[in-house]
UniProtKB/TrEMBL annotation:
Pfam families: Glyco_hydro_47 (PF01532). Disulfide bonds join 502-531. Its EC number is 3.2.1.-. The keyword Iron does not apply. The gene is Man1b1. One of its GO terms (cellular component) is endoplasmic reticulum membrane. It is a single-pass type II membrane protein. This is alpha-1,2-Mannosidase. InterPro entries: 6hp_glycosidase-like_sf, Glyco_hydro_47, Glycosyl_Hydrolase_47, Seven-hairpin_glycosidases. It is found in: Endoplasmic reticulum membrane. Residues 85-217 are annotated as: Disordered.
Amino acid sequence: MYSAAAAAASPPRRDFISVTLSPEEAAVGAGGYNNSKAWRRRSCWRKWKQLSRLQRSVILFLFAFLAVCGVISYTSMGEPWKNITSKSSDDQDSEPEIPGLKLANPAVLPAPQKADANLGDYPELSPQKPPKPPHIRRGPPNLQIKPPRKDVWLKTRHGTSRVVEELVQADKEEKTEKSVISWRGAVIEPDQSTEPPSSQKKESEKPSSVEAEDQKVPVPINDRQMAVIEAFRHAWKGYKEFAWGHDELKPLSKSYSEWFGLGLTLIDALDTMWILGLKEEFEEARKWVANNLVFDKNVDVNLFESTIRILGGLLSTYHLSGDSLFLEKAKDIGNRLMPAFRTPSKIPYSDVNIGRGTAHPPRWTSDSTVAEVTSIQLEFRELSRLTGDPKFQKAVDEVMKHVHTLSGKNDGLVPMFINTNSGQFTHLGVYTLGARADSYYEYLLKQWIQGGKKENELLEDYMRAIEGVKQHLLQRSQPKKLTFVGELAHGHFSAKMDHLVCFLPGTLALGAHNGLTADHMKLAEALIETCYQMYAQVETGLSPEIVHFNLHAQKGHKDVEIKPADRHNLLRPETVESLFYMYRFTGDKKYQDWGWEILQNFNKYTRVPTGGYTSINNVQNPSNPEPRDKMESFFLGETLKYMFLLFSDDIDLINLDKYVFNTEAHPLPIWVPA
Ligand code: DMJ
């Protein structure tokens, strides 16, 4: 190869002159400035050759060192770089999404904040956290912006709350502390899972509930839920047109009936409307509560019924909406019910005059019903927590403590009456899980859950009672061998079961979900099948109020027998309620299908064309079910609410680890463990 240096030193030779010289080389040869790449390459090479061996080695070593450093720093910076570049290209390419949803890997600059982004003063939001997607609260949208009180259990607009965070933290701590509790041979397995299959992940794979909520995409309302909304609207239409502000609709006579004169249906239905997202209806009802609901009335109310429907309904609506109007009303009725506890035994009277502040038992006796005095606790305890006034909780806790110590129980099963003077059970020897005793059992478990699973006496009484049920009241029918809960009267078993007993499978499942023995879940599965059969084996597909089971197989006889006096249906919720729990905890779609059948039969036999639904007198006569002309408030408060929840696949739509339902289906928060 020709070298410019050699050319400069040696005399010009002909063969070099003419052919190979480039213009640049010619210029060099002529002594002009040359900065061409080739010239520089050749000049560097000449310099390199002139260096000593040592100098060359040092330079080579330096190059090698720099190259190694370069490789190391590239590999550590590569990932974030990739994220940033791929993120920005995603942003350009993708459709607009729910704001903030893609910010799990925050971009280089935070997303611009809206002017109202810092509405509430919610201290729980860490400034270091990336922006979160806005939480979508169900219910009338314009009511969602009401800032909740900070000291109560409410979701913030960011889908979390201090209390929820504390709950999660406490839950974590409790899980690490708790081992297996044992109660008289019944093993309580804290970690036993009854979650639906879709959520049965390993604990370590699960996001915390707060994180889960943050990432939550709203679950769309499905066709069956739409059918519930349609049913609700139809019922509401009748109530609004013919019974507005009164206790119950009489849909056939297009009028109303009064029990307490306190707008019972309207109050019972408030939180259902919220959950179903019925904005207009809710707002209209709220106006009525604000302007027309007055408790200063000379009227006798039943303590239990007004507690579970009115106090419970107002408290849960307050929790869901964050609207203090409902808390104020709850305080008012709570205070007015307190005279009921002024009895020699502190076991409350059944009736209170909320205007006069006086209370009394029924005219014919000084007894109260056991279920009634032991199923007002969730509501009064919550009222104390919200108001900071312990008197409500003190009054109802005393009742539970007293009943805990009483004799006259049969392996945890309680009689139906208790005397307000002596404080003793009366009419001993009759045991049922139906009318007059039912919700005693339900509230044992639910108070234990509400209070953070610390009140051991409640759990003890509950576990003992379920053992009592197994020992004395469980039987199997023929021919289908359905497990049912009968009654015991002075040692004689009766194969009679009220529809009311169908709360039990749901309660058992709730207990199992909360760590109680897996036996309870098995029993729940058997009993809900029976409750479903109480509908399926009847001509209209609707359950009567009471059934008698056949204990012996007889040709041509089904399991379920119905007496003429018992063949009415009051639109009761218990079976649907239990179906809801069973579906939530197992994910088995058959429970939804059973509920769907029931809804269709309500539509077929109890729907009144001009608006509303009616109780019927004869579930055995599809051609004339004999409408009774009454829509009970619990049809809107409970039955349709549980239907809607049953058909939902959104476990956060009233999450059962955060809320406990009172016996009228009003969800109340589970307290933060202390
Ligand atoms: C409701 O008022 C409550 O569910 C109560 O516990 C029982 N009776 C009715 C519904 O059947």
